[in-house]
Amino acid sequence: MAQQPAARLDLEVFREIEAFIYYESRLLDERRFEEWAALYTDDAVYWVPAAPDQTSPIDSVSIIYDDKPSMEVRVRRLRHPDAHAQVPPSRTSHMAGNIMVDALDEQAREYSVTSQFQMLEYRAGRQRAFGGTSDHRLRRVKGGLMVASKTVRLINCDAAFRGIAILF
Amino acid sequence: MSEHCASQIDKLIEADRVHRDVYTAPGIFDLEMARIFGRSWIWIGHASQVASIGDFVTTRIGRQPVIMVRHGDGQIKVLINRCRHRGVRLCALDRGNTKQFRCPYHGWTYRTDGTLLTEPLRDVFAKDFDLDEERMGLTKVARVDSYRGFVFANLTPGGADLMPNLGPMKAGIDDICDRAPEGEIAFTGGGFKQQFDANWKFWVENMIDLDHPRFAHVAASSAARGMEPGSDYVTARAANRVLNAFGASSEFWNKTGVWANGDGHGYMGSLAPGAEPDGDIYLRYKAALEEKHGPERAQEILNVSRHNNLLYPNFNFQTSFQHVKIVDPITVDHSEVRIFAFQMKGAPEEMNRDAIVYLNTVQSPASIIQSDDFDIYERQQQGLTAQGSDWVYFARGAEGDVAEDDGGFRAVGTSELPMRKQFQAWRALMTE
Ligand code: FES
Ligand SMILES: [Fe+2]
User: Fold this and answer.
1) How far is CA A92 from the centre of its chain?
2) Closest Cα to residue B319, out of B274, B363, B267?
3) Which of A55, B84, B125, B224 is paired with B268 by a 20 to 30 Å CA distance?
């Protein structure tokens, strides 16, 4: 693909993609988890590698490697009154930026989008920060865009974490 | 509490309860570091992590930084990760390969067997200063021993050797290795780290606590209920199979059974004792095992019923879902856990991949199972700041312990036998 495909993109399409990324963040911050999961296609994969150099989600462990049904399990668990790690619930602030449309696959009607994100999370007296790169593969569907896959590369992916309940 | 003599420590442990000080008193914690972590066989790593000459990993014995490295002669060395000059932690990486360890501060350089290779200004030391390459080499751990690739170290020269200490837990390590058609496992597959603000023993107790899943994990198990079995999605399949078990009744957990002995070691039986899977992948796996050993021996290997094994004080290894984990005590109320995936050599690729999927689902810091456990450990630590109700109870099933020929005891799964035995071992180590 060309170096700066974004430049060849219709500004309106770029705006649409940008707004989509912001909207995903907003759904998570507003704990609208069902609507968030609904942004993903049925064949979607949500991947958070556990090592900075990890290339395969198959041969070594990942912080998250969810298909759509697993994402939905995650959401149902968050809604359960006995999800102890969310009593009290987290409050989050997701910030997305540096959005670049790296590639356009006309045939699949898919855009490869890279962005930076930061997420502040406050829960039970403790605030912490996550940050890293998100790679979205966005698919053009009737009526708009959906996420066909998302890879989140946390800069601290191999750190000793406290439990993670809210996604990025 | 700062000073604790044996008689004071004795008073903290009763047959079915322990005083909250064992989790909250910094003085007790310091004693644990000396008397438990300073004298027990601690898991260091696995030979497959340092397969080639010069390979190293860094780890801990209790709070102490340690290097495990494969020396030029092929032997695995366990060295204290501290420059002998002025104390710099010599190696700052989790793993790597090196010919030597050079201190970043003044350049003292050590061979991979720990001997001192060079001191850049050797000439200007006082004539009688002892710069002997052995005596000023990296401190060696007093005892190192291994069994089927599992490397253990002990900071104290005296006391039981590794094998007698392992005792009936040897069969657990055999189980792990024998199930691999090639008789060996490899620590490929990556791992996780977690931290929590609570005492290390809460984690240890949780390793064989079979009455907690139906309460602690009810959110996860009910969220996974109704997921179609046999779905093409690898993750969905694993999630379904495993998460449902977390919501099982106490009858289910009782059937698995638990075993524990006075050294604090313990294990729980298989989740579905006697039930053998019959899927295509499993049958291919079984065929590989039979080809290696013949059908009789293969069946014997598969009949061993152990799900989770706890090697006191801080090491847990699991056959069925192919991982080991270790808790490192950091302070009285802060701990870290490291989890390592392993793969069975000679098993179908899908089986090893399935284990990876299980670990993502159940052992990751973002697991909908683990995150609830870790939250609960912290709430235990917070609750125990309460004064006036000073005791923590392990009375469940106390009258049902049955002595076994191997010196251990057996009980139904929901019994708190494992914790009672952990504290029997704790008291012995802390007072003798
Ligand atoms: S502290 Fe290591 S060389 Fe000085
Ligand atoms: Fe648990």
Assistant:
1) 14
2) B267
3) B224
B295 and B155 Cβ atoms separated by less than 8 Å: no
Contact criterion met (CB < 8 Å) for A67 and B235: yes
Residue B325 has pLDDT above 90, yes or no: yes
Q: From start to end of A13-90, where are the E strands? A: 40-49, 62-67
Residue B248 pLDDT: 85
Contacts of B322 (CB under 8 A, 6+ apart): B185, B189, B341, B342, B343, B344, B352, B355, B358, B359
- The domains located in chain B, with CATH, are 42-147 (2.102.10.10), 167-431 (3.90.380.10)
Q: Give residue limits of the domains in chain A.
A: 4-154
Which value does ipTM take for this structure? 0.94
The burial class, CB within 10 Å (0-12 / 13-18 / 19+), for B45 is buried
Among the partner residues B189, B227, B336, nearest to A73 by beta-carbon distance: B227
Per-residue pLDDT band at A72 (split at 50, 70, 90):
very high
Q: Which residues contact B7 (CB under 8 A, 6 or more apart)?
A: none
**B175 with B319: CB under 8 angstroms?**
yes
Task: Express the helix, strand and coil content of chain A in percent, nearest 5 each.
Answer: 25, 45, 30
Residue B162 has which token pair? 């590794």
Q: Do B191 and A164 touch (CB under 8 A)?
A: no
Question: In one letter, which amino acid is B294?
Answer: G
Q: A60, A61, A71, A156: which to substitute to probe chain B, counting the most B Cβ within 10 Å?
A: A61
Name the closest residue on chain A to residue B372, using Cα atoms: A85
Indicate the pLDDT class of residue B238, thresholds 50, 70 and 90.
low
Distance CA A30, CA A23 (A): 10
Q: Cβ–Cβ of B190/A50 closer than 8 Å?
A: yes
What was the pLDDT predicted at B228? Answer: 59
Among the bound ligands, the one closest to the CA of B118: 1
Q: What are phi and psi of A77, to 5 degrees?
A: -65, -40
* A162 interaction partners in chain B (CB closer than 8 Å): 194-196, 365, 374
Mean predicted confidence (pLDDT) in A111-129:
97
Cα–Cα dist A117/A130, whole Å: 8
pLDDT class for A4, splitting at 50, 70, 90? low
Q: Which residues of A touch B (CB under 8 A)?
A: 48, 50-51, 54, 58-70, 73-77, 79-85, 158-165
Number of Cβ within a 10 Å radius of residue A15: 11
Distance of CA B199 to the CA centre of its chain: 16
CA of B375 to the centre of ligand 1 (A): 41
Closest CA to B259 of B23, B98, B417: B417
pTM over 0.90: yes
If you take atom 1 of ligand 1, which residue's CA is the nearest one? Answer: B86
Q: Which fold has domain A4-154?
A: Nuclear Transport Factor 2; Chain: A, (3.10.450)
CB A22 within 8 A of CB A15: no
